[in-house]
Amino acid sequence: MNLFLDPNVAYLVLVVGFILGVLALLTPGTGFVEIGALLAIFLAGYSIYNLPVNTWALIILIVGVVPFLLALRKFKQWYWLIPAILSLIVGSIFLFKLETGAPAINPILASIVSVLATLFLWFVGRKTIDAMKARPTQDLSRLIGMIGEARTDISMDGTVYVGGEDWSARSEKKIKNGSQVKVIKREGLVLLVEPV
C-alpha cells in the first residue's frame, strides 16, 4: 500500500476513479465498471487519509460532482459539464500538498492527465446529453392515421403492412387480404384498423 502514498499515483487513481464513476452512472448494470470505480475511490480515499491534503481542493472535488449530475440527469445541457470538469482538474491537481504547502503533483503529469480527462469527459458527456435529448427513432404513435395493406384476412386478428413493417392487427369489420387499411388506434403492438 506504500505505492498509494505517492501523491502522483494517488492523483492518477483519483482521476481514474472519477472517470470510472462517471461511466458507471452512464452505463449502469455491468458490474465491472462499478467495482473498478469503488476500488479506485477506496484507494484514493486511503491516499487522502494518509497524505497531507488541501481541504479546499477536496471540497472543490466533492462539489464538482453536482454540476455533472445536473448536466446528465436534470437539465441535460452541455454547459453544466464545464464547471464539473474544471472542478475535477483544479481539485485533483491541488489536492495533495508538500510539507511546504506547494502542490505535490508533477506538473507534466497533471497537464497530460488533465487534458486526457477533459477530452474524455467532454466527449462522453456531450454524446450522452445528445442521446438523452434525441427523439426516439421508434415513435409508434406515428402509425396512427397511416395507410397500409392487409396481409391476411382481418377480423379478430390478422396482419397488416404499415410503415415498412408487418404488424398484428384487429378490426371491428372484416377486411379481406390485400385491401387497404387505415390505422385508427394502437394497443401495445397490435394495431386497430379499418378498411379504407
Tell me what you see in this structure.
Helix content is 51%, strand content 15%. By secondary structure, the chain is α+β, with helices and mostly antiparallel strands. It has two domains: 132 residues; 56 residues, OB fold (Dihydrolipoamide Acetyltransferase, E2P), CATH 2.40.50.140. The chain has a five-stranded mixed beta barrel with strand order 1-2-3-5-4. Helix 1 packs parallel to helix 6 and helix 4 packs antiparallel against helix 5. The model has no long low-confidence stretch (mean pLDDT 86).
Short description:
This protein is α+β, with helices and mostly antiparallel strands. It has six helices and five strands, in the order H-H-H-H-H-H-E-E-E-E-E. It has a five-stranded mixed beta barrel with strand order 1-2-3-5-4.
Could you outline the blueprint of secondary structure elements for this entry?
Elements: H1 7-26, H2 32-50, H3 55-63, H4 65-74, H5 81-95, H6 107-133, E1 147-150, E2 158-162, E3 165-170, E4 180-187, E5 190-195
Helix pairs in contact: 1-2, 1-5, 1-6, 3-5, 4-5, 5-6
